[in-house]
Structure formats: C-alpha cells, structure tokens
C-alpha cells in the first residue's frame, strides 16, 4: 500500500513541503491584506510572522513528518492514524505558542495557517506516500 523505500519518503516530504509552503505564503499575503498586518520577507521581531520563517518551518516540519510517516508505516498497522495524531499535537502546540507569543495582529493569521498546513499535511503526506497502482 505505501512505499517501502526511505528515500521516497524524503522526496515526499520535500514535495509536500514545497507545495504547502507555497500555499501558506500565498495565504499569508492574502491575510496580510485582509487583516492589515505587515507583510515582511524577513526580520528580527520574535512576535511577528515573516515569509522566510513560514517557509522554513513549513518545509522542515513536512520533511520530518514524512520521515515519521515512513517509520509509522513500517512499524505500526495504522500509520495514517498515528501520523494524524502527531500532526494534531503539533497543531495544538503551535496554536498555543502563537497565542502566547505573537503580536495580536498576527494571531488570527497564524491560527488559520496552522489549521490549513496541518490539514494539508494530513492529506498530502499519506497520499504522496502511496505506491502507484499499475
């Protein structure tokens, strides 16, 4: 059902990471225009969202997530369930830290981005990890 080769999961993580980071950054730009917060490429304020940070965090988390999915499919009978639990725990943690540390104008944007990125991760990583049927 799922691929067996470790490197295929690394490729899945990279592909999912690139797709989702593009979506996340477009949504960040749209929400910046809708909610009126600053849109910056990079900066030093810890209570602000930046495109570079969104891109880095999204791509690394998807790469790590795909690698975790490899181990889940190898060692458990329900890899999608375990992967979903890990992603949901990450979502809760990120939502909490966004609420605790971000400037008020960025909180709604961060929550929406966390929800969409987590949902897409739960959908895309298992989908891209399936073996192609012939």
UniProtKB/TrEMBL annotation:
<feature type="transmembrane region" description="Helical">
    <location>
        <begin position="48"/>
        <end position="72"/>
    </location>
</feature>
<feature type="transmembrane region" description="Helical">
    <location>
        <begin position="12"/>
        <end position="36"/>
    </location>
</feature>
<feature type="transmembrane region" description="Helical">
    <location>
        <begin position="108"/>
        <end position="125"/>
    </location>
</feature>
<keyword id="KW-0812">Transmembrane</keyword>
<keyword id="KW-0472">Membrane</keyword>
<protein>
    <recommendedName>
        <fullName>DUF4383 domain-containing protein</fullName>
    </recommendedName>
</protein>
<keyword id="KW-1133">Transmembrane helix</keyword>
<feature type="transmembrane region" description="Helical">
    <location>
        <begin position="79"/>
        <end position="96"/>
    </location>
</feature>
